[in-house]
């Protein structure tokens, strides 16, 4: 089933080549890593959780997740990733395509409305949506309200993903992007699904946003 598309955003030849190279690097790098995956309540299994979900993980943990997606239920689920509308987003979208993941282009800073519409259409068509709620430019380890809004409007569960590394390098970027060292151990935990009620007050909405942030922080090893 092909992934739904938002407004077409053309990438440069350079960004497309970088995306291909990034995807190849991620595939090769993952072969050196030892993964421990914990599925709480079997949330990635279609026969247990057949409805589409929103997967949420921190922006600086995305390097290791796509390569093992097929081994964590990804082969039997259809998923798209929210990427930014920038050239960096084109690079990421190209890399994700190599792992069978579609892309919704947009972000909290550019094409935000298009991104929300694209996510809603994808969920209603049965696609899972993967988001980094502190991306694309931060602040690091803070949850933007968009993921709460889309989960609320579509009555879709949010599944936090926690990723820890036994040994890793941290880049000097805004998100302190994490790259696990070769032959290190990667722990991946799919947490309990979170459902956002539709009729809640602004105060309750903010509480849900903070609760998701705190949940994701608990699964981090450097927060």
Written description of the protein model:
Helices cover 30% and strands 19% of the residues. The protein has 223 residues and is of the alpha/beta class. It has one domain. The strands form two sheets. A seven-stranded mixed β-sheet has the order 1-9-6-2-5-3-4, with helices on both faces. α2 links the parallel β3 and β4. The termini are far apart. The N terminus is likely disordered.
How would you sum up this structure in a few lines?
With 223 residues, the protein is an alpha/beta fold. The protein is built from five helices and nine strands, in the order H-E-E-E-H-E-H-E-H-E-E-E-E-H. The strands form two sheets. A seven-stranded mixed β-sheet has the order 1-9-6-2-5-3-4, sandwiched between helices. Strands 7-8 form a two-stranded antiparallel ribbon.
Helices, strands, pairings?
Layout: H1 13-30, E1 34-39, E2 54-56, E3 79-83, H2 87-97, E4 102-105, H3 112-124, E5 128-131, H4 146-154, E6 158-165, E7 168-170, E8 178-180, E9 185-190, H5 202-218
Parallel strand pairs: 1-9, 2-5, 2-6, 3-4, 3-5
Antiparallel strand pairs: 6-9, 7-8
Helix pairs in contact: 1-2, 3-4
